[in-house]
């Protein structure tokens, strides 16, 4: 293999490597440009605290745009008919799934396979008929399954085998009918503790049909089944503590002693069985029972109570839905161990004064929802009573002795009665009372009821009464009070000092009253030094201007964290004094919704540096100063719906870098700019429903951001509609094609950079591998221009010959060639060192010399072949020779050069194959013959296409 072939192979290898490098860089640039697009604008759902809420959305399939990071998924109250195998494949972190109230009749096998973290699954209220093989595969961590109110008839043996962690199963209100089907379920559930199988039309309950081995069940609900035979002959439920067999029709009770010895809570409400069998039933649990629910049983109530209270361990007794108009003195004579007695919904009108005398251990008594007209005197005999519920009765007045001796009472419920007045002495003995509920009565005034007593009261509910004024020191006896509700009254007057003594109050609710600004300006709240929450919405407070108040109404409430001010009921607009919030240095939530505000002074929030939530919705705000938000950099939640603001531009300068939640519904926002969104970098939820969006290129960036960002959830974005221009009104905003709207500068930079890199590589590669070809093409081009320039000119040649030689051969040219051709023969020769024009580019001198001479004599030597400028001279001469078909070239070899050494000089080899030459080395014996032949070559005419005269004795055709 010759050196030329080796060189070609190297060049080919270089080209391959260059091509591979170009491909790699192209792929690298493309991959860096592609950005993963996940999107966070859900079509039908919203995300709240990492829970996807899709309830009541009329869905017919499980949405697939839910982020994979959610831990809860609420799909309740929809129209989903089927759960497909791919429904939840991308939700590996899901722990709670709610499919309640759908139309699900079929679930594909493997539909839950990817829910490896799921803990709770709700399939209630659907239309499932059959639970097929391996239906719940993948739910190995599920602990709670609710599947009640379906139409389940068939359960495959392997349906539940993967749910090894299940603790609660509710499959009630179905159509299982045979308890053996329950066995096929629970045999795979080693950790099951709670089982609900009520209303399944079971006719019998035999322990051997349920299981052959003991269970860990603690809670079993068999109620509302037509069970005729209840039989337990083996100790298969050793851990059972809660049993419900209410509303059944048991005709045969066969339970061996001690098989239910651990049951502590028994519910036999509405049970239909013989009295003797019921007595036997109660005797079965005689040693462990603590709670008995025995509601609406059609037997002698006194007898049932006596049997029940004979159980020494029984302490909680529930007796509802009996028609007891009167409670006699001997009804509970045996209930000496009862601590809780529930007698609600019995239509009781009167109670004997001694009815509860035997209940000396009673701590909780509920007489709720009866027909009592006064507080029964029987309660005064309950010296250790802790809780008394008299709500939803017909009590109209309270006497001073109604709660005599109730020194241990802590909770007293009197709401939803007809109480109109309170006497000052009514609560005198309730020294330990902590909770008093008097809401929803007809109380007109408090009559000093709270001035002296109730030193330990912490919660007082007086809302929904008819109070009109709060007088000085009205609550000064309640030094421990923490929560006070006075909303939904008719309060229009707050006397100064009306909250005197409430130094521990943290919450006060005064919304929906008739309070005016003059009342709060009195300093009525100055005594509430520990107040955390103040509700004043829906009152009659209105300020006509934003001038500073002489005395800020809340200046002493430095610990207040939540403040809500009221709705203006009167005519006219309102403003907020700019020092209205003075003193509220710890305020975190401020709600001024719907007070007909026209503006907010820029200094409104300079007093509230800790503010985190602001609601100024439903006002007539036309403009907001950017300086308004400067004092509240910690703001996280902003509600600004239903205003007449035209844009959100004020956010651009507000410096709300911590804002996470923005609700701006039903405004006049038409364009949401990039600057607005970037000004709130922490935003995770934006609600922009009902705005007047413009569907043109001004919103192009916003549309792309809504669809592509993966941080901020834009609620209901797929239902945003266009308002402008008119021909697009009603069209979905996200359907707008904005691809032609904007020039993507980043993409242009990418394309430009890529093209520049590729061009640089192509030029570098071409120069490296094809440099000689380019040079030759360049000189050919110059020669062509020169030839065309002088083609039609018949000017005489300036020289007879141009001598092309290397400087190393100059001695031979000067000493041999010039004397002979110029001195003796008289030829006009052109030599570069003598005849080139100074200052002119050398390549132009060469071209002018060659085209200005009849002939070109190339003096060839090894140095000549290595010379760059000699190579260029012969290239121009070659073009003239081959392009013009003129005999203009004479080759004179000063040295013998072997063929192998001429191989790299392919142009010279090409010339020698087509032309003859003179050799100086072979003219040693006959030099005169050499000069004669050279002279003849100079004389030779320019006939096209022929060599008239042979110039040498050596023929090179074999080359």
Low-confidence stretches: 1-39, 942-959
Structural class: alpha/beta
| Head-to-tail CA distance between termini | 18 Å
Work out the helicity level. 10-25%
Shape: elongated
CATH class of the domain at 772-939: Alpha Beta
Describe the structure.
With 959 residues, this protein is of the alpha/beta class. β18, α4 and β19 (291-293) form a beta-alpha-beta unit. The radius of gyration is 52 Å and the shape is elongated. It starts with a helix and ends in a 20-residue tail after the last helix.
Brief sketch in words of this structure:
This protein has 959 residues and is of the alpha/beta class. Helix content is 21%, strand content 15%.
Show the helix and strand layout.
Blueprint: H1 3-33, E1 46-48, E2 51-53, E3 72-74, E4 82-83, E5 96-98, E6 106-107, E7 120-122, E8 130-131, E9 144-146, E10 154-155, E11 168-170, H2 179-186, E12 194-196, E13 204-206, H3 207-210, E14 219-221, E15 229-232, E16 242-244, E17 252-255, E18 265-267, H4 275-284, E19 291-293, H5 301-309, E20 316-318, E21 326-327, E22 340-342, E23 350-351, E24 364-366, E25 387-389, E26 411-413, E27 435-437, E28 459-461, E29 469-470, E30 483-485, E31 493-494, E32 507-509, H6 517-520, E33 533-535, E34 562-564, E35 589-591, E36 613-615, E37 637-639, E38 661-663, H7 674-678, E39 685-687, E40 693-694, H8 700-708, E41 713-715, E42 722-724, H9 745-790, E43 799-804, H10 810-824, E44 829-830, H11 832-835, H12 842-851, E45 853-860, H13 862-866, H14 868-884, E46 889-893, H15 899-902, H16 906-914, E47 918-919, H17 927-939
Parallel strand pairs: 2-3, 3-5, 4-6, 5-7, 7-9, 8-10, 9-11, 11-12, 12-14, 13-15, 14-16, 15-17, 16-18, 18-19, 19-20, 20-22, 21-23, 22-24, 24-25, 25-26, 26-27, 27-28, 28-30, 29-31, 30-32, 32-33, 33-34, 34-35, 35-36, 36-37, 37-38, 38-39, 39-41, 40-42, 43-44, 43-45, 45-46, 46-47
Antiparallel strand pairs: 1-2
């Amino acid at each position: 293999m010759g050196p030329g072939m080796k060189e070609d192979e190297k060049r080919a290898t270089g080209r391959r490597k260059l091509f591979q490098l170009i491909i790699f860089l192209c792929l690298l640039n493309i991959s860096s440009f592609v950005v993963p697009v996940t999107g966070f604008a859900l079509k039908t759902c919203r995300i709240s605290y990492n829970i996807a809420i899709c309830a009541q959305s009329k869905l017919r399939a499980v949405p697939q745009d839910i982020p994979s990071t959610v831990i809860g998924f609420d799909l309740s109250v929809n129209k989903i008919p089927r759960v497909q195998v791919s429904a939840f494949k991308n939700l590996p972190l899901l722990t709670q799934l709610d499919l309640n109230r759908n139309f699900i009749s079929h679930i594909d096998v493997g539909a839950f396979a990817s829910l490896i973290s799921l803990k709770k699954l709700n399939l209630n209220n659907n239309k499932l008929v059959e639970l097929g093989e391996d239906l719940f595969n993948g739910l190995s961590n599920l602990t709670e399954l609710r599947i009640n109110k379906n139409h389940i008839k068939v359960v495959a043996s392997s349906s539940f085998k993967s749910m090894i962690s299940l603790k609660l199963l509710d499959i009630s209100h179905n159509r299982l009918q045979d308890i053996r089907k329950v066995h096929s379920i629970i045999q795979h559930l080693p950790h099951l503790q709670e089982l609900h199988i009520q209303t399944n039309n079971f006719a019998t309950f035999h322990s051997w049909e349920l299981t052959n081995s003991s269970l860990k069940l603690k809670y079993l609900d068999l109620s509302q089944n037509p069970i005729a035979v209840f039989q337990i002959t083996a100790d298969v439920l050793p851990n059972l503590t809660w049993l419900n067999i209410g509303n059944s029709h048991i005709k045969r009770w066969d339970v061996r002693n001690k098989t239910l010895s651990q049951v502590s809570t028994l519910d036999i409400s509405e049970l239909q069985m013989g009295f003797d069998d019921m007595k036997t039933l109660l005797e079965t649990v005689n040693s462990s029972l603590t709670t008995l629910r025995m509601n609406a049983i059609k037997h002698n109530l006194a007898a049932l109570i006596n049997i029940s209270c004979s159980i020494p361990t029984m302490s909680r007794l529930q007796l509802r839905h009996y028609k007891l108009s009167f409670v006699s003195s001997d009804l509970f004579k045996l209930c000496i161990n009862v601590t809780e007695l529930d007698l609600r919904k019995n239509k009781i009108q009167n109670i004997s004064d001694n009815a509860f005398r035997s209940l000396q251990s009673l701590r909780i008594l509920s007489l709720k929802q009866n027909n009592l007209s006064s507080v029964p005197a029987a309660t005064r005999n309950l010296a250790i009573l802790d809780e008394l519920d008299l709500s939803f009765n017909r009590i109209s007045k309270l006497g001073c002795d109604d709660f005599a001796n109730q020194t241990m009472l802590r909770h007293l419920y009197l709401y939803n009665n007809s109480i109109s007045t309170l006497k000052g002495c009514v609560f005198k003995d309730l020294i330990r009372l902590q909770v008093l509920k008097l809401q929803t009565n007809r109380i007109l005034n408090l009559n000093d009821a709270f001035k002296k007593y109730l030193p330990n009261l912490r919660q007082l509910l007086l809302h929904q009464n008819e109070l009109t004024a709060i007088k000085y020191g009205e609550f000064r006896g309640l030094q421990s009070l923490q929560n006070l509700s006075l909303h939904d009254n008719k309060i229009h007057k707050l006397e100064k000092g009306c909250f005197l003594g409430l130094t521990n109050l943290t919450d006060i609710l005064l919304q929906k009253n008739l309070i005016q600004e003059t009342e709060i300006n009195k300093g009525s709240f100055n005594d509430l030094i520990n107040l955390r929450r103040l509700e004043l919405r829906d009152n009659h407070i209105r300020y006509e201007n934003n001038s500073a108040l002489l005395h800020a109404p809340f200046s002493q409430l430095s610990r207040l964290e939540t403040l809500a001010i009221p709705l203006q009921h009167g005519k006219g607009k309102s403003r907020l004094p700019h020092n209205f919030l003075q003193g509220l240095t710890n305020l975190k939530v401020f709600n001024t919704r719907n007070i007909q505000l026209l503006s907010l002074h820029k200094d409104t929030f300079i007093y509230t540096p800790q503010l985190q939530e602001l609601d100024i919705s439903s006002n007539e705000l036309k403009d907001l100063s950017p300086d308004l938000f400067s004092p509240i950099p910690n703001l996280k939640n902003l509600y600004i719906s239903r205003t007449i603001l035209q844009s959100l531009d004020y956010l651009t300068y507000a410096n709300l870098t911590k804002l996470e939640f923005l609700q701006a519904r039903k405004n006049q926002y038409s364009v949401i700019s990039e600057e607005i969104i970037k000004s709130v970098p922490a935003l995770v939820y934006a609600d922009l429903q009902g705005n007047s969006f413009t569907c043109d290129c001004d919103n192009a960036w916003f549309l792309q951001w809504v669809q592509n960002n993966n941080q901020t959830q834009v609620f209901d974005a797929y239902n945003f509609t266009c308002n402008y221009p008119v021909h697009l009104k009603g069209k979905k905003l996200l359907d707008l094609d904005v691809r032609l709207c904007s020039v993507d500068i980043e993409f242009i930079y990418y394309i430009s950079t890529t093209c520049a890199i590729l061009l640089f590589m192509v030029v570098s590669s071409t120069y490296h591998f094809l440099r000689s070809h380019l040079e030759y093409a360049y000189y050919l081009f110059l020669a062509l221009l020169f030839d065309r320039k002088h083609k039609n000119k018949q000017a005489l040649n300036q020289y007879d010959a141009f001598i092309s030689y290397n400087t190393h051969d100059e001695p031979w040219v000067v000493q041999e060639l010039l004397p002979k051709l110029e001195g003796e023969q008289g030829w006009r020769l052109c030599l570069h060192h003598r005849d080139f024009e100074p200052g002119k580019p050398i390549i132009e001198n060469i071209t002018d010399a060659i085209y200005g001479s009849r002939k070109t004599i190339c003096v060839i030597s090894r140095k000549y072949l290595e010379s760059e400028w000699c190579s260029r001279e012969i290239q121009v001469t070659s073009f003239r020779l081959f392009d013009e078909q003129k005999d203009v070239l004479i080759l004179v070899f000063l040295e013998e050069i072997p063929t192998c050494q001429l191989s790299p000089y392919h142009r010279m080899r090409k010339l020698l194959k087509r032309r003859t030459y003179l050799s100086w080395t072979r003219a040693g014996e006959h030099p005169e013959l050499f000069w004669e032949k050279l002279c003849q070559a100079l004389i030779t005419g320019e006939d096209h296409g022929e060599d008239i005269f042979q110039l040498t004795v050596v023929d090179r055709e074999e080359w």
